[in-house]
Design goal:
alpha/beta; Rossmann fold; two-stranded antiparallel sheet; 8 strands; about 15% strand
């Protein structure tokens, strides 16, 4: 299945979502010397019904599992526990190899799951199967003001990027639901860092270190970078470790993760707290 066909499936299965308010107060400070802004995707740029990418989640997982199989013409049987077990086994294998925060390739996971069910499918079908399941367990929709905020930041000459737990279908959300690809929106390809491509997931600082190295090549110091995300452990803590300024996105109760019991977050304070994406534009 081509990217264009996958984009059409995203549009067909997506419906508008509205952020749920939080009690966290906004905190805006001047950031006049910024040269780059990097973002998380799920729960920050996009409303995420599950609060994060749905790989491994069980949000009505069994019915979503069977519906996804049926959508690609495979027998609608089995349940989401097969997917969960395959992901857990791959995580365990990678941890044994020394990777603290492993990420999976969801297409390879679905290949394994089908094999366990004595089924098989070519890669294009596996790609659609992964997408069909994800859109059912984790519907998404652009956060209010997304396109306008990105356009304004780009017009100010800021470098744009993403650091996100993601799968192959994640970048397709932008052309599907905004009508423009990340490149068309102004995001630098070398600053688009996805967990599935690296094989490492957040909160590993290695994803942020990779972004910092790319920015260093462009002559941009970490202190002139703002990273915006909705999770204190996965986003704010590792971004702070590499020296980025940080913005906690507190615009949707579904995805806000304060992690108050996590010792890594106890002494970490975000530079700013945003209740909406357009508030980023006020930190000049």
């Amino acid at each position: 299945m081509t990217d264009a066909e996958l984009i059409e499936r995203i549009r067909a299965l997506s419906r508008p979502l509205t952020p749920r308010p939080t009690d966290v107060e906004a905190r805006l400070v001047p950031l006049p010397d910024l040269q780059a802004v990097l973002f998380d995707i799920y729960g920050t740029l996009f409303i995420s019904a599950a609060g994060d990418i749905g790989v491994g989640l069980a949000v009505d997982g069994d019915s979503a599992f069977r519906a996804a199989l049926e959508a690609v013409g495979l027998p609608a049987r089995g349940g989401a526990e097969l997917l969960t077990r395959a992901i857990e086994a791959e995580h365990a294998r990678k941890r044994a190899a020394g990777i603290d925060h492993p990420e999976v390739d969801i297409v390879a996971i679905w290949h394994t799951v089908l094999a366990q069910m004595e089924l098989s499918a070519p890669e294009p079908t596996l790609r659609r199967l992964a997408l069909e399941y994800e859109l059912r367990v984790n519907p998404v929709w652009p956060m209010p003001g997304l396109a306008e905020t990105i356009d304004a930041l780009r017009c100010r000459g800021l470098r744009l990027g993403v650091i996100s737990n993601a799968q192959f279908f994640t970048p397709l959300l932008f052309p599907a639901l905004l009508g423009r690809s990340l490149a068309q929106l102004g995001f630098a390809p070398q600053l688009c860092i996805y967990s599935w491509q690296v094989g490492i997931a957040k909160p590993s600082p290695r994803l942020y270190e990779r972004a910092a190295a790319e920015l260093d090549h462009a002559g941009i110091e970490p202190g002139r970078v703002l990273y915006v995300g909705n999770d204190m452990r996965n986003d704010i803590w590792p971004a702070d470790l590499v020296g980025f300024r940080t913005g906690l996105f507190a615009g949707d109760a579904r995805s806000l993760r304060l992690r108050e019991d996590d010792p890594r977050c106890r002494n970490v304070q975000p530079t700013c707290v945003f209740k909406s994406l357009p508030q980023i534009l006020e930190c000049r």
